[in-house]
Amino acid sequence: MNTIQSVRWSDDGLGVRIIDQRLLPAQLVERDLRTLDDVTDAIQTLAVRGAPAIGIAGAMGLVVALAPNAKQGRAKLIASARAVAAAICATRPTAVNLSWALDRVLDRAARTDSDGAALIAAMHAEASKILEEDRAMCRRIGEHGLSLLRDGARVLTHCNAGALATGGIGTALAPIYVAAERGIPVEVFVDESRPLLQGSRLTAWELDRAGIRVTVLTDGMAASLMRERDVDLCLVGADRIAANGDVANKIGTYGLAIAARYHEVPFIVAAPASTIDAATATGEDIVIEQRAADEVRCIGSVQTAPANVSTYNPAFDVTPAALVSAIITDACIHRAPYNFVSEART
């Protein structure tokens, strides 16, 4: 099985190397991000995307953007780090992993009694630790989730929660990759995931590359697929999970969950424990990013709607916890009723 690395350090350690996901599936191109503008642009334009991956890229990008300031004194360097982190965090407000990873690197800086290059080296080490932990996290999600897959399982997924969205083998796709490693056949159906087609462009690309049987369908076909053909479970990722188990994920996830409930198909969410935001009580409190109108009016460079019409283009929707059969994290499989506030306190 041939999985890929979506984000890592550049060969010289002075940049963040990403796969430019805007160019897939036609081209596999890697880019090195070396400035704050590089990092914020890559995250904002979805050159790098997926909650864990943007958290890693943000943490690494903070270090890369700060490196030219290595000669500043400790207090000034930490102030600069906070300003850079705020700029990176503002690019994608819904994904909690981004703020979580940036806060970890800032906390490491605050706890390091050094200045200059030594302080930046400590931050570099923390960002590297986040990447390594993410790889291990993906593996644990895959191991936990494998128990939900039978031989020949037919899985329906939405958007991309695979290797391209993480530092490892993915979240929602991790159990599928682990099954493939162990010779357990799994068939995956992938929603196209309009408007940016992360399902057809990214998930189908990486699964096909890994030799896993995959079928692409448009988002509006998912309910018919459940009615006409056996679907064993829906398996999706998450960008933020509220304390009560409400899940923010790529737009279209909520509709998929409603269809799954009607057709009695288990609806499973897979995400790292860091995606659980115990400070956010319910999905009503999650900030939903609104994106550019031309993402809806066009497919790529082809205009598909009148240029002057209004559009509705939230990047995410919120699936109520009542529709979520289980939440797989790197720690365990959680089942309803969800109460991540009390779990965080124990």
Could you explain how this protein is built, in words?
The chain has about 350 residues and is α/β, with parallel strands linked by helices. The protein has two domains: about 5-140, translation initiation factor eif-2b, domain 1 (Four Helix Bundle (Hemerythrin (Met), subunit A)), CATH 1.20.120; about 140-345, Rossmann fold. The protein contains eleven helices and 16 strands. It has helices at about 35-45, 50-65, 75-90, 95-110, 115-145, 175-180, 200-210, 220-230, 255-260, 295, 340-345; strands at about 5-10, 15-20, 30-35, 155, 185-190, 215, 235, 240, 245-250, 265-270, 275, 300, 300-305, 315-320, 325-330, 335. It has a seven-stranded mixed sheet. A four-stranded mixed sheet has the order 11-8-9-14, with helices on one face. Strand 12 (about 300) and strand 13 form a beta hairpin. The longest helix is centred in the middle third of the chain and has 31 residues, at about 115-145. The mean pLDDT is about 95.
